[in-house]
């Protein structure tokens, strides 16, 4: 009787919220908000589009609250360990969820978390899980076509040749970027897709080496609802195992405002949906499962673009010094380097689940048809050289109530090791803590690795990270972390053992559902060669970079949202004048009641003394695109993003952006040079789905 009464109350609540639900924010807006919290402190060229596609996948194929596992909820990185455990415990104690609104009865979930979560979970809507006929999946699949064109109105120097198709110092193609995407999907179980991209400056079909788009990517991804085979992937895919120390492709955990999000918890095999031309595997992967045992075998063979060098010795040996990560093939020289080395990777993973602990083993072999030699500078002494690399890994994950421990140990065949270990503990409903230690040997070498770390090369690093989330009361939250690290060997522009420390403190205030604000302080301390001698240094200087941010968000109405921010960056280097960077912006987002039209705009003013005091701020963009522009010099930046739903299955996005500088007369250099003080970008995208 009580269950029926509870169900009636939930139905009544659902009826009351029907109108509000119709006026909820768009999925794209929610994903942009979450991504900004995840990456807004990042200053590296990571593949954010992959993260966006990952969230969009779960928004379109919601997780069933009555079947979702602990590891699946961990992939929604905005959930804390206590919140995940509270959801699972609630289901175990009271039975299956009757509605998403039942989440409101869980004390560990605040209103914002429930709101975000409602976009990615559902109750008993995974009807596809009962579908075992692959042919029926094809017939009932969703289809999506996307076309994007992006260009700048100002002409760069590389496009000004009379005959740009033959000139060696000019771009071969037009000043327009084009992207085409197609995807067929059936829930969580089937995904077939193709992506093609031509970057600005790349020829489309004029050269014999180019067949249509410069970059092609295709995948087939299938998760059988039943049986020993758990996942099958063909074509392009990503592998994420353990904490990403031995082998992991794609974006990983990084320091940011989500201070507890430093643990890797992605699917082992994921279809590749992004356009980065390096961070993926091409071949076959399969995961099989039997009772408490599961294993994954994967193989990849693909050409990569490198800086290939021909030696002068009698044998005419060749080697490459680095892998080109830009993915740009605009000039004859860049095109000549395209796909000039063949990379082959094979790996095997086995994992065992014993009650609350999971233990996994991993072995990976990587081969190149040319040897790599990365330089003779002292800091490059322990870089990988040769044409093959093997490494093994052991990882674990232990879950007990509100305590989660995780880690990974990796060993090269050269005897070098690396390991990372951490734990997350919920001391109280209002307090979560995380601690993580990592130690990477100076001669540790990997092919694809992406653990939590300060440096991207995953070597020569030892550090300790500690973070906390403290809910002071219903209106106030306090988050923060400290990360202390050191390198016992040299680094680029660091001619000696060095140390560093990062500190972040954020105070978040939400007086009402319509208003929220936060103040953030972040400081980075690290060592570098003294500026008057960048090659050989008598001592290392300590440089200090500090960020101060005040951010306010106000929902004026259910249709209009305003965001305001002021950010100050200071950079101090011993013996030099302090440099500053200031950014002030105002955002406005409006949509109509039917969600068929929306517009987002920003006006930003900035004044930056030097590159070291640069400022970053994430922007809204069209679907499957995400930008975090760098603000340098002084000037004004404006942009507007318009989305129009022309028909039930046809959407159009348009983004116009312009940056005008007040203290420079040219922008960039070399073939990218623009004579003038402004740069205007136009981006148009259309999506058709059925």
Observed structural traits:
single chain; about 700 residues; mainly beta; globular
Folded structure, characterized:
It is a single chain. The protein has 690 residues and is mainly beta. Among the domains are: 2-132, no CATH class; 142-222, no CATH class; 227-471, no CATH class. It is 12% helix and 47% strand. Strand 25 (579-591) and strand 26 form a beta hairpin. Helix 3 (27-39) packs antiparallel against helix 4 (48-60). Mean pLDDT is 87; it is low at 1-22.
From the helix content, strand content and strand pairing, which structural class follows? mainly beta
Q: In one word, what is the shape? A: globular
Low-confidence stretches: 1-22
- Approximate helicity band: 10-25%
* Most strands sheet: 24 strands, antiparallel, barrel
Mean pLDDT over the full residue set = 87
Cα-based radius of gyration, to the nearest Å: 26 Å
Number of helices: 9
Determine the strand fraction and express it as a percent band: over 45%
Total count of strands: 33
Termini separation comes to 43 Å
List the helices and strands and how they pair.
Layout: H1 2-16, H2 18-22, H3 27-39, H4 48-60, E1 63-64, H5 70-74, H6 81-94, H7 111-117, E2 121-122, H8 134-139, E3 142-152, E4 176-186, E5 190-198, E6 215-222, E7 229-239, E8 269-271, E9 281-290, E10 293-304, E11 306-310, E12 318-323, H9 332-336, E13 341-354, E14 357-372, E15 386-400, E16 403-412, E17 417-428, E18 431-440, E19 461-471, E20 476-487, E21 498-512, E22 515-529, E23 540-555, E24 560-573, E25 579-591, E26 597-608, E27 615-616, E28 630-631, E29 634-647, E30 650-661, E31 666-667, E32 674-675, E33 678-689
Parallel strand pairs: 1-2, 12-14
Antiparallel strand pairs: 3-4, 3-33, 4-5, 5-6, 6-7, 7-8, 7-9, 9-10, 10-13, 11-12, 13-14, 14-15, 15-16, 16-17, 17-18, 18-19, 19-20, 20-21, 21-22, 22-23, 23-24, 24-25, 25-26, 26-29, 27-28, 29-30, 30-33, 31-32
Helix pairs in contact: 3-4
């Amino acid at each position: 009787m009580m269950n029926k009464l509870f169900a009636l109350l939930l139905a009544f609540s659902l009826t009351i919220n029907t109108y509000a639900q119709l006026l909820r924010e768009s999925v794209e807006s929610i994903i942009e908000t979450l991504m900004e919290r995840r990456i807004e402190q990042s200053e590296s060229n990571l593949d954010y589009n992959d993260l966006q596609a990952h969230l969009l996948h779960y928004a379109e194929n919601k997780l069933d609250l009555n079947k979702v596992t602990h590891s699946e909820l961990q992939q929604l990185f905005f959930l804390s360990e206590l919140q995940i455990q509270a959801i699972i415990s609630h289901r175990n104690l009271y039975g299956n969820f009757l509605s998403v609104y039942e989440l409101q009865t869980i004390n560990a979930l605040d209103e914002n978390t429930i709101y975000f979560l409602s976009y990615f979970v559902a109750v008993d809507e995974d009807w596809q899980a009962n579908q075992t006929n692959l042919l029926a999946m094809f017939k009932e699949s969703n289809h999506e076509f996307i076309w994007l064109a992006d260009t700048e109105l100002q002409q760069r120097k590389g496009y000004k040749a009379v005959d740009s198709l033959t000139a060696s110092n000019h771009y071969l193609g037009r000043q327009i970027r084009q992207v085409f995407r197609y995807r067929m999907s059936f829930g969580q179980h089937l995904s077939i897709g193709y992506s093609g991209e031509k970057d600005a400056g790349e020829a489309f079909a004029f050269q014999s080496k180019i067949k249509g788009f410069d970059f092609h990517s295709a995948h087939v991804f299938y998760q059988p609802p039943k049986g020993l085979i758990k996942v099958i992937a063909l074509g392009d895919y990503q592998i994420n195992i353990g904490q990403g120390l031995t082998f992991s492709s794609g974006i990983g955990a990084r320091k940011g405002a989500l201070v507890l999000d430093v643990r890797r918890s992605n699917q082992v095999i994921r279809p590749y949906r992004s356009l980065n031309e390096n961070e993926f595997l091409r071949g076959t992967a399969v995961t099989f499962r039997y009772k408490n045992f599961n294993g994954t075998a994967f193989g990849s063979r693909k050409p990569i673009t490198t800086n290939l060098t021909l030696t002068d010795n009698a044998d005419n040996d060749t080697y490459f010094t680095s892998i080109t990560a830009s993915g740009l093939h605009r000039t004859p020289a860049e095109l000549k380097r395209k796909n000039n080395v063949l990379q082959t990777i094979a790996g095997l993973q086995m994992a065992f689940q014993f009650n609350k602990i999971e233990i996994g083993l991993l072995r990976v072999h990587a081969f190149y048809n040319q040897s790599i030699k990365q330089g003779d500078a002292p800091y490059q002494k322990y870089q990988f050289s040769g044409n093959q690399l093997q490494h093994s890994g052991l990882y674990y994950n232990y879950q007990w109530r509100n305590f989660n421990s995780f880690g990974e140990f990796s060993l090269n065949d050269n005897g070098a090791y690396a390991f990372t270990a951490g734990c997350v503990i919920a001391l109280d409903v209002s307090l979560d803590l995380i601690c993580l230690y990592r130690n990477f040997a100076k001669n540790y070498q990997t092919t694809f690795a992406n653990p939590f770390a300060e440096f991207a090369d995953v070597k020569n690093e030892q550090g300790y990270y500690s973070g906390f989330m403290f809910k002071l009361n219903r209106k106030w939250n306090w988050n923060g972390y400290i990360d202390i690290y050191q390198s016992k060997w040299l680094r680029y522009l660091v001619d000696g053992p060095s140390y560093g420390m990062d500190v972040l403190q954020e105070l978040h205030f939400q007086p009402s559902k319509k208003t929220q604000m936060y103040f953030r302080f972040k400081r980075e301390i690290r060592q570098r060669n003294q500026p008057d001698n960048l090659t050989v240094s008598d001592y290392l200087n300590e440089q200090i970079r500090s960020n101060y941010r005040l951010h306010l968000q106000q929902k004026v109405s259910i249709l209009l949202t305003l965001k305001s921010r002021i950010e100050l960056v200071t950079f101090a280097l011993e013996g030099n004048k302090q440099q500053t960077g200031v950014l002030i912006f105002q955002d406005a987002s409006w949509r109509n009641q039917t969600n068929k039209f929306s517009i987002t705009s920003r006006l930003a003013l900035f004044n930056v003394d030097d590159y070291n005091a640069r400022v970053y701020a994430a922007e809204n963009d069209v679907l499957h695109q995400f930008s975090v522009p760098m603000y340098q010099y002084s000037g004004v930046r404006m942009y507007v993003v318009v989305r129009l739903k022309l028909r039930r299955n046809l959407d159009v996005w348009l983004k116009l952006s312009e940056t005008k500088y007040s203290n420079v007369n040219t922008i960039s250099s070399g073939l990218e040079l623009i004579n003038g003080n402004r740069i205007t970008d136009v981006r148009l995208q259309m999506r058709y789905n059925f």
